[in-house]
Fold this sequence. Notes:
Helices cover about 40% and strands about 15% of the residues. By secondary structure, the protein is an alpha/beta fold. α3 runs parallel beside α4 and α8 packs across α14. The longest helix is centred in the last third of the chain and has 18 residues. α6 links the parallel β5 and β6.
Amino acid sequence: MMQSIETEFTKAFNVRYPIIGAPMFLVSNEEMVIATSRAGGLGTFPALNFRPIERYAEALRKIKAEAGGPVGVNIIVQKQNKFQEKHLDLALEHGVDLIITSLGNPRDVIRRAHQTNTKVYCDVVNLDYAKKCADLGADGLIAVASGAGGHAGELSAFALIPYLKAHINLPVVAAGSIVDGKGMAAAFALGASAVYMGTRLIATTESPANQEYKEAIVHSGCEKIVNTDRVDGFPGNFIKTKSLEKIGLEMNFIEAVLSQSKRFRRGLALTRAARSLLAGDKSKVSYKNVFSAGHGVGLIHDVVPIAEVFRRTISEYYEIRQRLP
Length: 325
Ligand SMILES: Cc1cc2nc3c(=O)[nH]c(=O)nc-3n(C[C@H](O)[C@H](O)[C@H](O)COP(=O)(O)O)c2cc1C
């Protein structure tokens, strides 16, 4: 095994490497989480990936038994997520090490997790929200920068990470376009104590993404990523494929006029979110035929096991440390 890397994050979770396998809707499965933790990182998954709730409990049991290291669960803390309380109950019951909150207010999750040994990191895209999470007692922040897969932030990692570090005394995880040792070294230079890897882990042998999705990642340049709210109503990064072009990347004229009303915008967002979550393979809009990914796609050239992604990342990181001016 390669030399470990010690940061505030690795000490807090007792892991060899400061790499979190990012939670990805419809992608992160048991195999990916287990492989990430076994490779020396911390594997996570969105609680919503396992439905009904009995499937989620079963996944937690399997992952805790086989990961051999710490694991995390991502919980959407928005009112629309009717399962959030059950997701939290079961995560705490199974002793997950980390809960990552996205959207909404993480107050209850932090309060309840802190009655146990579970830590809570919150997804943040700006300083205001990060301060709220810190005031509520979050243990760390995930700085979701522009260029991330999924619902990316708008700020560059070069600004967001040092900005958060200058104002808030919490460990920060860098998220967005990190696929190798270069990204990891840069993230540490900016003040991060761990990195998130999403898109890189979709193109792995353990990932359940279909062949078309993996190939789109391997063959796309960075310029192929477009930011659009057409898929689920919230701006997200997607690979510009024929399926994505079919749903139209721009708002049509009527939507543009109506969207000046806040109520309409919200209704539209919720309709699109529901449509993309529930749609089958043949539907025009579904997470199954449009592919979310970050700007890092241009740096990914093959499908390899997760352990190999780790090996390359760590060895490149140590190599870069020698070469830096
Ligand atoms: C297909 C896909 C699905 C995602 N689903 C979620 C999710 O359910 N919850 C969440 O907090 N983040 C989600 N994300 C965002 C990732 O957790 C992470 O922030 C992002 O992938 C990091 O950027 P990268 O892909 O450039 O590494 C998703 C990202 C992708 C690519």
